[in-house]
Write a structure and sequence with these properties.
five-stranded mixed beta sheet, NAD-cap_RNA_hydrolase_NudC, hydrolase, metal-binding
């Protein structure tokens, strides 16, 4: 990450019980207490060691082939035409991002020309080194929030960035509301029957053949466990019990936090809500261990907590 033109790429690995989910667990000091210190932020921005991870149209700046992509960081400092956002300190080195969406050809910016291209993290993230992927996800999420909260949601006045890009403050002195980055909690749950079968469903928005576990957003005034029960009942008509938390994953596509669970079905007759899913059915471990991925059937993407839940459930029966 510190070599501006050829950042190091460590060996990526699929999530397993001994490591965090993709995009999580990066060794970054977010240095939140520094965000209010404008003098410190200015010094950090102009530091010769400071790194900048550009974003444009919710795409991250990378180099290399799609199957070996690496994040490109360039020197921070200077005038980029937009306010930088402070991400934190990586090994003591300040990390920033800027949103270059306003430029017609951001990859042709003089500081970026010839160094890389902007790619959707959902395409390149699964094969990137873990820290690079996590920083790119963070940069994508915080710039997306800033871009969509340029005006106060209370009075409609312009909202100005503050605290290193982690707060937006209404410029109307009679309002002066402080707005903070939004994260939408979503439960994602592997539903099993306790006897070697699990439910997989297919949403019409999925890539061809992709099947995954069930998921849905938490509603106001609802506990996570209640959300799991409600979403499973709404999507496939199953009553569940024995709800167990697994792990969480930041999912800035655009602004979710995925909260992973498993749950055992009490009823077994699936009734699919066609507005939620194209189809859903039971699959047994034997099939999931031996099938060949195709346009007709494949599992969730490898960087998702959904895939980790599936893979670990399959391994439990070995």
């Amino acid at each position: 990450m510190h070599d501006r033109s050829r950042p190091d790429r460590l060996n990526p690995g699929r999530p397993n019980p001994g490591r965090p989910n993709a995009y999580a667990g990066i060794p970054l000091d977010r240095a939140a207490l520094r965000r209010k210190d404008m003098d410190w932020l200015k010094d950090a921005w102009t530091s010769p060691q400071a790194c900048l991870l550009p974003v444009a149209k919710s795409r991250n700046f990378v180099t290399g082939d799609t199957d070996s992509a690496r994040a490109v960081s360039v020197p921070a400092g200077g005038d980029w035409g937009v306010e930088p956002v402070f991400l934190g300190l990586l090994d003591g080195v300040p990390q920033f991002t800027v949103d270059l969406t306003g430029l017609e050809a951001p990859e042709e910016h003089p500081a970026l020309a010839g160094l890389g291209r902007f790619e959707d993290l959902r395409t390149v993230g699964p094969l990137m080194e873990a820290t690079e992927a996590g920083l790119c996800a963070y940069a994508r999420g915080i710039t997306w929030w800033n871009a969509r909260h340029r005006f106060c949601g209370v009075c409609g006045s312009a909202a100005a960035g503050a605290e290193g890009g982690h707060v937006r403050v209404c410029t109307n002195p009679d309002c002066a509301t402080h707005h903070f980055p939004r994260t939408d909690p979503a439960v994602i749950m592997l539903v099993h029957d306790g006897a070697g079968r699990m439910v997989l469903g297919r949403n019409s928005r999925f890539p061809p053949g992709m099947h995954s576990v069930l998921a849905g957003f938490v509603e106001p005034g609802e506990s996570l466990e209640d959300s799991v029960k409600r979403e499973v009942m709404e999507e496939v008509g199953l009553e569940v019990t024995d709800i167990r938390y697994h792990s969480s994953q930041p999912w800035p596509f655009p602004s979710s936090l995925m909260l992973g669970f498993s749950a055992r079905a009490v009823s077994l007759d699936i009734r699919t809500d066609q507005e939620e899913l194209e189809e859903a059915r039971w699959f047994d471990r034997a099939f999931l261990r031996t099938f060949t991925p195709s346009e007709d059937f494949r599992l969730a993407r490898p960087d998702s907590i959904a895939r980790r839940l599936i893979d670990e459930w399959i391994a439990e029966g070995e």
